[in-house]
Design a protein that fits this description.
By secondary structure, the chain is of the alpha+beta class. It is built from five helices and eight strands; from the N terminus they run H-E-E-E-E-H-E-E-E-E-H-H-H. The radius of gyration is 29 Å and the shape is globular.
Length: 208
């Protein structure tokens, strides 16, 4: 009587194929990332606008890239300067609205720096944040009561020329003078550290 012996399943080839497939799945994104990271980043001319309005203002001679880390869509990287654009309408207090925009962007307390007004526009310099906050109010009846809040943040050497270009694209008046002086580093005040080895009475005096 003929007998048949079951052959053991040959899984070696399938296992090797599975390993190769898994390795390719891991390597493919890394290869793609390395290719894109070595290519120049895509830039385009900076245009101050948002998807909420048809009002737009190109900034001549400024190339930027979209900021993928920005929480809002209208955030750009222009060299070493970050540009955040917000659009508001029917604002009762433009100054307070601009301060709130800075607070939301920087996650700090409501700024108290003075705001300088030139005609219908305004600018606030915040040296502690390396930021210039600009508020532009549209005077065109087609865009009545619309305003742009433009926050520029970066190193002063690149920040200030870009702020002047943005401001000059909306206003014939020069950006308020003295901005370079405003960004001049101030001398640091040395604060004595609490001496952990000091007697308790001295330590409490330092804390007070």
């Amino acid at each position: 009587m003929a007998t048949y012996r079951l052959q053991p399943a040959r899984t070696g080839k399938y296992f090797a194929l599975l390993c190769v497939t898994f390795a390719l799945a891991i390597a493919a994104p890394l290869v793609a990332l390395s290719v894109f990271s070595t290519n120049p980043k895509h830039t385009e001319p900076l245009v101050i606008t948002t998807s909420e309005t048809q009002w737009e203002q190109p900034i001549d001679g400024v190339e930027c890239e979209w900021d993928p880390a920005g929480l809002l869509l209208d955030s750009y990287i222009c060299g070493t300067t970050n540009v955040q654009v917000s659009w508001v309408k029917d604002v009762k207090d433009s100054d307070h609205s601009l301060r709130r925009a800075v607070r939301a962007h920087s996650l700090t307390a409501l700024p108290r720096e003075p705001i300088t007004h030139i005609e219908n526009d305004a600018v606030m310099v915040l040296p502690s944040l390396n930021m210039v906050a600009i508020n532009i109010r549209n005077q065109n009846p087609a865009h009545a009561r619309e305003e742009f809040q433009i926050l520029l943040q970066g190193q002063p050497q690149q920040l200030l020329p870009l702020a002047e270009k943005v401001w000059g694209s909306f206003s014939d008046a020069p950006l308020p003078v003295g901005m370079e002086e405003d960004f001049t580093p101030q001398p640091q005040v040395e604060i004595p550290l609490l001496n952990a080895q000091a007697p308790k009475e001295v330590a409490m005096e330092n804390i007070a």
